[in-house]
Specification:
- The chain starts with a helix and ends in a 9-residue tail after the last helix.
- By secondary structure, the chain is of the alpha+beta class.
- A hairpin with a 7-residue loop joins strand 5 and strand 6 (120-127).
- It is built from six helices and seven strands, in the order ααββββαβββααα.
- The chain has helices at 3-14, 26-41, 89-95, 161-175, 182-198, 201-204, and strands at residues 47-53, 57-61, 68-71, 85-86, 110-112, 120-127, 132-138.
- Helix content is 33%, strand content 17%.
- The longest helix is centred in the C-terminal third of the chain and has 17 residues, at 182-198.
Length: 213
Amino acid sequence: MKVSEVLDRARIILQDADADYWEESELPMWLSDGRLETYRMRPDLFEVSEDFVCVEGARQQLPNGARVLFDVPRNVSATRQRAITVADAGALGRVRPNWRSQAKAQEIRHFLYDERSPGQFEVYPPARDGVVIELSYAKRPAAVSQSDGEVELEQEGEYAAALVDYVLYRAFLKEADTVPAFHQRAAQHLAACHSTLTGDVTAKAVTSPNEQK
């Protein structure tokens, strides 16, 4: 579904094809918020696998403001391109308590991920600057504007209909102060959005990389 299709469907339901009540700039802004809501609830829809250039040391920051790491499959720049496995921070700390200060390496053996700090991860041994590894993570969706009408919402795919409900939720919520009945209408659209996104979440849920251990 394209950006324009989401916005057109929302305006049909709002009976505001000429943007008399909701300005043209408003609905794309709420669509962008809806994409972030989708990212929060279904990060698996935004999974990408990319080469990642490490900074020197153990601690690495997920790119593009991402908050969800799925896996660090392998070395890319190292000659052997060996697989990288997830490690337990507590176990590694007991065996090598000073591992973060050890010599920097060209080849990574393990990665560590703490859900309490979702925007970052660590590598073992600490990396030399410029080491390249493969990274599987949920990439934050880009904001959209009215001029992005032909942009295809590829990540959302079959769930793009949920974005229509999110836009309607925000539209009706804005008017709820003057039309109290719109509070309920807004809540219904938000519930429909969440239901679409999570209806089959059991089958599609992606677990933390720590579940691999």
